[in-house]
Amino acid sequence: MIRAESARGDSRALLARGARELGLQLTSDELEMLEAFQEELLNWNQRINLTAITSPEEVAIKHLLDSLTVLRALPPALADERASGSLADVGSGGGLPGIPLAIVRPCLRVSLIEATRKKCSFLEHVAHRLSLTGVTVLHGRAEELAHRPDLRERYDVVVARAVGALAVLAELCLPLVRPGGYFIAMKTPRAAAEIAAARRAVELMGGGCEQMIPVRLPILDQERLLVVIEKQRLTPALYPRRPGVPARSPL
């Protein structure tokens, strides 16, 4: 249950408080940008389906702060806020977690991969509105984009918050990760059972050891699980398979 602080409608206070619980000290500029993103998300949501959550306070917690939990799983080389590197958000939708990560880690080069054209228009608008010069919006399905030479095995980190079995997400995301990079799947604790079922897909995609990082969603104190998979080998050229096949026939 959301506490009295959110009942007063002070999403900035919620963001600042939640960030502190995550070990982050957000600047006033970052808080302002996160609030502006939240406003745009809710405004555009009246025209296109970006989120089922429409309360500003819940958006602040369940979308923005949830997105920032990914920082717990970034490799040491990218943990510093001044570190440069590349990150792809697959199935970005309303820009989650990619936009909040780009706001608090402006040195990262962030690609937002989204298959729906209208959602891409929203992402392009937000990136321009917030002057996020390191953000690129890529319209297309991961199954196709991962075969582009300029994108295949180019990213230090690929993250997916999209709903889907881990075996499916591994086939969509690991081909985009460079050897030595990482794939991060944002899951609930119930997803721990998916790891064994996904092991074959992970190995076929060139993934190696995995790590499960439990995190708690600030304010609401809900459990989350970040599944981190290291890319150890090149992905065979066959993968990912044609659009729709990974979801219909998981490896």
In short:
With about 250 residues, this protein is an alpha/beta fold. About 40% of the residues lie in helices and about 20% in strands. It has a single domain, classed as Rossmann fold, CATH 3.40.50.150.
Can you lay out the helices and strands and say which pair or pack?
Blueprint: H1 4-7, H2 11-21, H3 28-44, H4 56-68, H5 76-79, E1 85-90, H6 98-104, E2 108-114, H7 117-129, E3 135-139, H8 142-145, E4 155-160, H9 166-173, E5 177-187, H10 194-204, E6 207-217, E7 222-231, H11 245-248
Parallel strand pairs: 1-2, 1-4, 2-3, 4-5
Antiparallel strand pairs: 5-7, 6-7
Task: Describe this structure as you would to a colleague.
The protein is of the alpha/beta class. The chain has one domain (73-248): 3-Layer(aba) Sandwich (Rossmann fold), CATH 3.40.50.150. Helices cover 38% and strands 22% of the residues. It has helices at residues 4-7, 11-21, 28-44, 56-68, 76-79, 98-104, 117-129, 142-145, 166-173, 194-204, 245-248, and strands at 85-90, 108-114, 135-139, 155-160, 177-187, 207-217, 222-231. The protein has a seven-stranded mixed beta sheet, sandwiched between helices. β6 (207-217) and β7 form a beta hairpin. α3 runs antiparallel to α6 (98-104), α4 (56-68) crosses α6 (98-104) and α9 runs parallel beside α10 (194-204). It is globular, with a radius of gyration of 17 Å. The model is unreliable at 1-9 (pLDDT under 50).
Question: How many domains would you count in the coordinates?
Answer: 1
Average the pLDDT over all residues and give the rounded result. Answer: 93
CATH class: Alpha Beta
Helix content: 25-40%
Low-confidence stretches: 1-9
Quantity of strands, as a count: 7
